[in-house]
Amino acid sequence: SVDDTDVPVTIEEVYGITSGLDNFKIVYEESGTTWRGITYVNDNQVVNYSQYTLEGYKMNINTEETETFTVDINGIEAICYFDNNDYWNVIWNNGTYIIKISTNISKDALIDMAESVQKVE
């Protein structure tokens, strides 16, 4: 179990996708003290990346008519689902932050990107 006193209440370390975005451009980037988000686009392909503090992550997920399942992201159990906007989504807790990636590319590409997430700053 995670001792909550050890987790940051603001974004202190920046994590990012380090593979699979070669031909993508950042079209949107925003951050606050407890979250950050980046949208990457390549023609009609979209990747939305988000990083949240554990305390800052309060999001409802529309899983209506969708099945969630777990995938392994570098030894961490992640929740994965295909939403009603035709996007694959994966969400996991890396022990310090909640990471979410949403994309209209394939599930395999999504998992590869998720496995490439690491500290970048």
Question: What this model shows, in words?
Answer:
The longest helix is centred in the last third of the chain and has 10 residues, at 107-116. This protein has one helix at 107-116, and strands at 15-16, 25-31, 35-42, 45-53, 69-73, 76-82, 88-93, 97-103, 118-119. The mean pLDDT is 91. A seven-stranded antiparallel sheet has the order 2-3-4-8-7-6-5, with helices on one face. It has a two-stranded antiparallel sheet with strand order 1-9. With 121 residues, it is mainly beta.
Can you summarize this structure?
With 121 residues, the chain is mainly β. 8% of the residues lie in helices and 44% in strands.
Average pLDDT over all residues: 91
Order of helices and strands: EEEEEEEEHE
Shape, principal axes of CA atoms: globular
Order of strands in the sheet with most strands: 2-3-4-8-7-6-5
- Provide the helix percentage: under 10%
Strand content: 35-45%
The number of strands is: 9
How far apart the termini lie comes to: 26 Å
Contiguous low-pLDDT stretches (5 residues minimum) are none
Task: Report the C-alpha radius of gyration, rounded.
Answer: 14 Å
State the secondary-structure class. Answer: mainly beta
Biggest beta sheet attributes: 7 strands, antiparallel
H/I helix tally? 1
Quaternary state of the chains: single chain
